[in-house]
Amino acid sequence: MFLRQYWNDTRLAYAHRGYNQSLTLNSKKSELWVPDLYFINEKEGSFHEITTPNLLLRVNPTGRVTYSQKLTVKLSCNMDLKKFPMDQQRCHLKMESYGYTTEELIFEWVNKTKDRVQFSDDLELPEFVTPPNISTENRVVKYLT
Question: Residues in domain Neurotransmitter-gated ion-channel ligand-binding (predicted)?
Fold first, then answer.
């Protein structure tokens, strides 16, 4: 999957210097703040790194950051198979911040519903039907820490 995150970091803005092109800063990732998003129901995951790490970190003149990376994840999916094979299952992709509170970081889906989740035109899953509609929601969960 391609996971894309966007945020504004005014500390990185440079439009006032008269330069109007976006900067690609892939090699500077370790020096910049990036959200600590993780998949709650992940069983296994990996970053794609052949032939180079598959990531994009781009900053535009106003400090708008685009962070895109290619990932493979296996997720746990609780299934109710009482009606198998006439059942329908829903698997959730659950994401949240690992260490920040909602006072520090809030994840929100992009405004355009069609841009939230996209499937490749040639996606094929044997024995499965790619969902015709995807639903997303924002949720706040309280943990005891």
Answer: 1-131
pLDDT digits (tens, 9 = 90+) for 53-91: 999 999 999 999 999 999 888 888 888 888 887 887 778
H or E stretch at 127 = none
For the entire predicted model, the pTM comes to 0.80
Fold of the 2-115 domain: Acetylcholine Binding Protein; Chain: A, (2.70.170)
d(CA 30, CA 8): 18
| Section 136-145 average pLDDT | 78
For residue 52, the SS3 value is coil
Quick one: DSSP state of residue 41? T
Q: What is the helix (H) or strand (E) element at residue 109, kind and residue range?
A: none
**What does each C-alpha distance from 21 to 11, 17, 28, 75, 82 come to in angstroms?**
17, 11, 17, 38, 56
State the DSSP string of 53-69. Answer: --EEEEE-TTSEEEEEE
